[in-house]
Amino acid sequence: MVSQNQPTQTHVVLIGGGHSHAIALKLWGMNPIEGVRLTLISDSIYTPYSGMLPGHVGGFYSFEETHINLNRLVQLADAQFYQDWAIGLDLEKNQVICAKNSPLSFDYLSIDIGSTPATISVPGAADYAIPAKPVSQFLTAWNTLLQQVKNHPHQPITISIVGGGAGGVELALNIDSHLKKITQQATLHLFHRGKRLLSGHNHWVGHRLETLLQNRNISLHLSENVTQITPSKTLICESGLTVENDYIFWVTQASAASWIKSSGITTDEKGFIRVKDTLQSVSHPHILAAGDVATIQNYPRPKAGVFAVRQGKPLFKNLQNSVLGKPLKSYYPQKLYLSLIGTGDKKAIASWGVFGWESPLLWDWKDYIDRQFMKSLNG
Ligand SMILES: Cc1cc2nc3c(=O)[nH]c(=O)nc-3n(C[C@H](O)[C@H](O)[C@H](O)COP(=O)(O)OP(=O)(O)OC[C@H]3O[C@@H](n4cnc5c(N)ncnc54)[C@H](O)[C@@H]3O)c2cc1C
What we know:
Elements: E1 10-15, H1 19-30, E2 36-42, E3 46-48, H2 53-57, H3 63-66, E4 67-69, H4 70-76, E5 80-83, E6 86-90, E7 95-98, E8 104-105, E9 108-111, E10 116-117, H5 125-128, E11 130-131, H6 135-151, E12 157-162, H7 166-180, E13 186-191, H8 203-215, E14 219-221, E15 226-229, E16 234-237, E17 242-244, E18 247-250, E19 254-255, H9 258-262, E20 273-275, E21 287-289, E22 294-296, H10 305-310, H11 312-324, E23 339-342, E24 348-352, E25 355-359, H12 360-378
Parallel strand pairs: 1-2, 1-9, 2-5, 9-21, 11-18, 12-13, 12-18, 13-14, 20-22
Antiparallel strand pairs: 3-4, 6-7, 7-8, 10-19, 15-16, 16-17, 23-24, 24-25
Helix pairs in contact: 1-4, 1-11
């Protein structure tokens, strides 16, 4: 810890430029601590805002409108930018192991690296399907697909989306609406293991989205367990259903980077970092974590951007309190949270507990909230 009167070079390292870290960097810039060196390790300068990503795919927002400029926030916080991938932790030496640069020592560490859709359990998925995360790789594939369709609008194209949670459904609706502006030759399939879509939400929302997909001629395959993807992108289900594809997008359950668990830090059964209410690791209190990569021991919640955003401020406060030797404060994530799901037609569906609504006004509201959020970070 440092005293504010006695500057030393305490080093605080942030891994990942997720939503919580973007907010923490901004707040740090507004409340700097003398004698503390701050470093962000991030693979990319531009990090996507999850709330607007499907809208970007739908063609409603540009890349710049949907991505947070981390370089700007790093400069505001007077921090250093290490553009690199963290690939491990040495918890004996308190070092982050990076893909390109030499190991980086830290006094306090914060991790906000998100999650990726789990491909490991389905043979062929990691090699022949395109996971929705990392988003930069997903967008590269999406832009290739778009260009292909623009160049050959009369050529049939088949696309499957695997995963019937909010992310998968919103993506399917936005892919559909964008492609329909360019071609009449696209066939879309959505596969979901469960009996109904968005099982974490109320029944009305799931059923309404099912109807919307059917109205748009997107083939919905419920209770279908995808068991294999072949090199020719044929998708095979446990039931025997087989679909040949040109592209397969993978938007299934969130999984954690394997290096987290192998570093020796305590994780939950899925490999996410177990944290206390203060966002401190239960095993290594000088390490904090937020967003998808963290599981709050007492209050597990779905992996959703809304929580990563909410954790930005408490993460920032507790990082600074750790450095200053002050008591850390508990954070209690709300149980009920509002989801606004864009339907790719400038309308949105709201889900809040047992309630659900659909309206173009909800899209206007979502658009306003999302743009305000981006303005607060990108200026
Ligand atoms: C298609 C889709 C749509 C979604 N829509 C919504 C929505 O509308 N609302 C909602 O609440 N949630 C939504 N989600 C979920 C949401 O994306 C996540 O919950 C949210 O992004 C988590 O934020 P985070 O801060 O934990 O991490 P992220 O936003 O994933 O950010 C992590 C950052 O860390 C970087 N990083 C990762 N690993 C490393 C490493 N090893 N070294 C350095 N940098 C690294 C990444 O490149 C990224 O910039 C959606 C998800 C998907 C897939």
